Amino acid sequence: QVQLVESGGGLVQAGDSLRLSCAVSGRTPSTYVMAWFRQAPGKEREFVASLQWTTGNRYYADSVKGRFTIVRDRAKNTVDLQMNSLKPEDTAIYYCAAKYGSTNVYARAVREYNSWGQGTQVTVSS
User: Fold this and answer.
1) What is the mean pLDDT of residues 32-53?
2) What DSSP string describes 7-45?
3) Rounded Cα–Cα distance for residues 15 and 20 (Å)
4) pLDDT at res. 31
5) Measured between alpha carbons, how far is 92 from 45 in angstroms, rounded to an integer?
6) pLDDT attached to residue 1
């Protein structure tokens, strides 16, 4: 079982940057996809970005492409989300997720992911 713990959320102003981190621990499979999702109040959880741990391939939702970057740190066993040029519509709880034994970096559905973190709040004021 993989354990995921997010950190780094907070309150920022529009245009600011913020970096989220997801610490991965436990029995990690030989290969997997890590992803970030977010859920705004009254909305469904949505895909933000993913990274295939072995190949490093990345995939982004159109809404964040060019502003967000998903980064892995093999030494620290973390997957970070660097968020630049933040907008009020980026306000949400951000979740880290893992899809075991997968090489499909294009997996966007919540149901495809096996493990989830507890989430971290990001609030962007205008």
Assistant:
1) 96
2) E--EEEETT--EEEEEEEEES--SSEEEEEEEE-TTS--
3) 16
4) 85
5) 9
6) 80
